[in-house]
Design goal:
- The protein is an all-alpha fold and 98 residues long.
- It has one domain.
- It has three helices and no strands.
- It is elongated, with a radius of gyration of 17 Å.
- The N and C termini lie far apart (60 Å).
- The model has no long low-confidence stretch (mean pLDDT 93).
Length: 98
């Protein structure tokens, strides 16, 4: 029989995995989409086309991030790499803002 504290820990792990795969992936995708659109604009693409292309790419980006977070061994690892990736993306976005 599984002890109740292990069962509770496992359930909280699932909750935090779901939060990382949804909210964390959404936040990281938002940063990546904004940075990608600014990069494409800086490379000479029209602003409207860059935003549209980045938005279309965001669906694939979100899917990849969500899959990776659910593939992580623990929710803390998933949140850790979400944080590690979001910091440089946030700095890049800050530097690219007009």
């Amino acid at each position: 029989m599984i002890r109740s504290d292990n069962l509770l820990r496992a359930r909280w792990g699932v909750v935090f995995h779901i939060l990382a795969g949804t909210l964390g992936a959404y936040a990281l995708t938002s940063l990546a989409t904004a940075a990608l659109s600014l990069i494409m604009t800086a490379l000479g693409m029209e602003r409207l086309e860059a935003v549209t292309a980045a938005t279309l790419a965001s669906f694939a980006i979100f899917t990849g991030i969500a899959i990776a977070t659910f593939h992580a061994r623990s929710a803390s690892r998933a949140w850790g790499w979400l944080s590690v990736i979001s910091v440089p993306l946030g700095l890049l976005l800050w530097l690219l803002l007009p």
